[in-house]
């Protein structure tokens, strides 16, 4: 694949006025899509830079002296780009340079799925941004540089890698209630490792709703739900009966991951098939998942007599049918559920237990080893959010049970 010729050979004016150069200068073979575009002026200042591929425009940044411009993100593979740059010389004359070049096609791409949030979803204050890559990422720093979080309230946060295929963003503290957030992953053309590139760009917008923070205490057998700082309800509960670790509810900051009504809980997680001695299969209603180890807050009519006084479950948080419905109806994905009083600590990589990580340790998990502050949100990105729930379904086949 051969690029088109530049309008100005080498992309530079060489007279006594302003000297203006563009890199790449055009011509030659197709360039890697992660090649930057740079414009430099000597003896004057840059007045305008336009980079286009068809109707698409390339974003870039001008330095404070207006002598240098650089593209902000990587380029689309297999595209032809035209660069038009104008500079004003100290002599008052202007110079214009045009360059045209083509980026190479790529054969291997690294696609992404989002575990959360969904586009236009209303979420809780603990909601992380969870990205999962189809292939291992070798250049994590290049990927991180391509990730952009904007919000209408300034928030400090950081990315953290779990292995080489999952990266997660969370704020230092919970999101402020009623915040609009926009996220863009400028991954098309990012070299994630070897000859593998980001397959496309991604964007989503979500709205943080009310601050609903629930504290479930094993010792008092009560769950207190606060909405925007005000106590909304105190609910009797029954937690894991303990005795062995697998029957102990995990301690720490959980986050509501999904809402399932109904869900089928089985004894398979214990290695016991339903129908075998000690096995079970239960259809459970009004269930809010809070971990990957099978813990839910759910309706448990069979344990109402123990709720508020004793722990009898296999690890879930049991509520009465009426309390479970109240909690289910008001819960958004991303709402924190803080469990206290148990001796089994929730791991940061168990579900969305990311808030369990100390902030300094969280930042260390960034490829760039630094926090980021959200950029201002453009007015056009204000979210018209929809639904806070995660839908219903027959999930949870390996849930811990009652």
Major sheet, described briefly?
A: 5 strands, antiparallel
Strand content: 35-45%
Mean pLDDT: 90
Shape: elongated
Count of alpha and pi helical runs = 3
What structural category characterises the helix and strand content?
mainly beta
What is the count of β-strands? 32
Helix percent reads under 10%
Which regions have little confidence, pLDDT < 50, spanning 5+ residues? 1-14, 380-399
How is the largest sheet built, in terms of strand order?
Answer: 10-12-15-14-31
Question: What is the compact description of this entry?
Answer:
The chain contains 3 helices and 32 strands.
Describe the structure.
The protein is mainly beta and 402 residues long. It contains 3 helices and 32 strands. It has helices at residues 140-145, 321-330, 359-364, and strands at 19-23, 38-42, 44-53, 56-57, 60-62, 68-71, 80-89, 94-102, 108-110, 112-116, 122-123, 129-133, 147-151, 156-162, 166-171, 180-185, 191-193, 196-198, 202-208, 212-217, 222-227, 230-236, 252-255, 258-260, 263-266, 281-284, 287-289, 296-299, 317-319, 336-340, 372-373, 375-376. The chain has a 5-stranded antiparallel β-sheet. The chain is elongated, with a radius of gyration of 27 Å.
């Amino acid at each position: 694949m051969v690029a088109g010729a530049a309008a100005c050979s080498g992309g530079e004016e060489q007279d006594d006025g302003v000297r203006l150069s563009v890199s790449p200068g055009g011509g030659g073979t197709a360039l890697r899509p992660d090649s930057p575009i740079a414009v430099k002026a000597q003896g004057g200042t840059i007045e305008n830079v336009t980079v286009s591929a068809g109707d698409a425009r390339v974003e870039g940044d001008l330095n404070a002296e207006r002598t240098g411009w650089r593209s902000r993100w990587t380029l689309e593979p297999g595209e032809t780009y035209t660069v038009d740059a104008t500079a004003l010389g100290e002599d008052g004359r202007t110079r214009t340079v045009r360059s045209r070049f083509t980026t190479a096609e790529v054969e291997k791409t690294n696609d992404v799925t989002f575990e959360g949030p969904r586009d236009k979803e209303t979420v809780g204050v603990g909601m992380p941004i969870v990205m999962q890559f189809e292939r291992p990422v070798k250049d994590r720093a290049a990927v991180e540089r391509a990730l952009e979080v904007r919000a209408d309230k300034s928030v400090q946060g950081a990315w953290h890698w779990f292995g080489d295929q999952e990266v997660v963003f969370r704020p230092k503290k919970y999101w402020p209630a009623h915040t609009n957030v926009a996220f863009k992953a400028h991954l098309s053309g990012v070299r994630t490792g070897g000859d593998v590139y980001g397959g496309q760009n991604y964007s989503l917008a979500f709205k943080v709703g009310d601050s609903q923070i629930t504290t479930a205490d094993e010792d008092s057998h009560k769950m207190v739900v606060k909405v925007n700082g005000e106590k909304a309800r105190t609910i009797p509960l029954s937690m894991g009966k303990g005795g062995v670790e697998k029957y102990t509810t995990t301690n720490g900051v959980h986050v509501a991951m999904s809402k399932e009504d109904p869900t089928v809980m089985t004894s398979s997680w214990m290695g016991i098939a339903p129908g075998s001695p000690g096995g079970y299969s239960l259809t459970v209603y009004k269930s809010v998942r809070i971990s990957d180890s099978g813990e839910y807050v759910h309706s448990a009519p069979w344990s109402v007599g123990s709720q508020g006084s004793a722990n009898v479950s296999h690890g879930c948080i049991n509520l009465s049918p009426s309390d479970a419905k109240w909690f289910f109806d008001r819960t958004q994905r991303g709402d924190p559920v803080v469990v206290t009083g148990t001796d089994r600590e929730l791991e940061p990589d168990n579900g969305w237990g990311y808030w369990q990580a100390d902030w300094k340790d969280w930042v260390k998990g960034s490829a760039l080893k630094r926090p980021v502050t959200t950029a201002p949100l453009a007015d056009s990105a204000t979210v018209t959010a929809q639904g806070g729930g995660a839908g219903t379904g027959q999930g949870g086949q390996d849930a811990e049970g009652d």
